[in-house]
Amino acid sequence: MMWQDLVENFADWPSLVKVWPLLAQGLLVTAELSLVALPLGLAAGLAIGIGCALGGRALRIALLCWIDLFRAFPLLVLLILITYALPFLGLTLPTFAAAVLALVLNNSGYYGEIFRAGLASVPHGQREAAAALGLPPLKAMLLVVLPQALRGVLAPLASNSLELVKGTSVAAMVSLPELLRSARVAQEQTYNPTPLMAAAALYFLLLWPFAHLVARLERRMLRGRAR
Questions:
Q1: Which pLDDT tens digit goes with each residue over 94-135?
Q2: What is this entry's stated membrane topology (predicted)?
Q3: Structural domain of 157
């Protein structure tokens, strides 16, 4: 009897079939959020890392403050401020754009620190050698220093990217119909928690390969340090 109750409440197939189009739409929005915010966050973080490496003292201090600010700022609070506070300043963004902006700003701090530390770990002699070959500083950074830095930061970059994809779920708080929001709406329609269980399974199927890749990169990085 208990097993039958569990199935009826958490794995009710008729309820899942009924709301599947809604869940599929939510999964698509989650994927779109991730595909837009991820490269923008990486680009912003890379720009911050390069700015810290090549900029003057004032620029480095400003960028370090940026990193500290957005790493300390909760993503949900940032999203709510962008969605509900900016209109008072005359700027109203669609919920999708607001969610992307919140994800990019929040993760630019994490990506920026990862790139900054990675670039700083490359011996300064590499830049001097590139300068001796006639490469300007930015070109030397992109062609000589950055490829070496990436070897040591692939694992944390992948790990933070995983967190970014999971962070898309906060968009449910501003009624963006991503996967979690769609599952909650589906639950209200069916009076059954099965849609939430289905959403959890979809998150797992979406993120497990990524988590497995992160674990492999971390093990490879540890083996490289042990040599």
A1: 999 999 999 999 999 999 999 999 999 998 888 888 888 888
A2: Multi-pass membrane protein
A3: 27-226
